Amino acid sequence: MNEPFKKWGRLPACGGLPTRPLQLVPAILTAVLAAAQTPGPILSLTATTDNVSSAHDSIRINLLRWSTEAERDQLFSAWTQPGASPAGRGARPRAVIDETDPAQADVNATAAGRGGGGRGGRGGGRGGDGAAAAAPRPTPESSLKTALDKAPTVGYLWSSEVAGYSVRYAVRLPEQDGGERIILITDRRLGAANDLWKPVGPGTATNYDFSLVELHVNSKGEGEGKISLTGKVAADSAAKAIALENYGALPVVLRNVKRQNSESVRSK
Question: Quick one: which of 115, 203, 222, 242 could link to 230 by a disulfide (CB 3.0–4.6 Å)?
Answer without folding.
Answer: 203
